Target: vitamin-K-epoxide reductase (warfarin-sensitive)
Amino acid sequence: PFCCVGRAGNMLRSRKVQLLGLLGFAISMYALSVEANLNNPDYEALCDFGASFSCTAVFSSKYAHILSAWGVVPAGHPLDLSLAVAGMLLYGAYFIAGGPLWSVMPARAAVFLTVASCGAAFSCYLLYVLKVILKDFCIVCTGFHCVNFSMFTLAIFEARDSWTSKRKVV
Model:
């Protein structure tokens, strides 16, 4: 079952975290390859399906580098990571956390829920930017959001199981 409790359930959930982390990392790598070719006039991304379904339009917008878009750092600053690079870091961390760190990570449920909640909230913000500000659709972005919302769901189950088992012990 999806929300198993106990050692077997934790292993199953950790594998789902790893699988989603791997999927998110792969999507991020594709997004990075699209970003790397934005200035190539001969390049046509597989994720472009027309004027209003264009991932290259989204990745070339100022929102593709969110910290400079928010005015936190200037454009081109080393900390002004693209969303693709930030995604690789996040999803890589999920993959590692779902593997060797899963059973030894202190406060795993709380940390996982916090990070996944931030990811889901950030996806909501980016969906707003995508539909309201950019008036576009990006299939790659949709992939990111599906991974983030799925990870959030897993985190809710992990937190619920963790907090339920602590109540039973007391």
Summary: The longest helix spans residues 139-169. DSSP finds six helices and no strands in the chain. Residues 1-168 form a domain with the de novo design (two linked rop proteins) fold (CATH 1.20.1440.130).
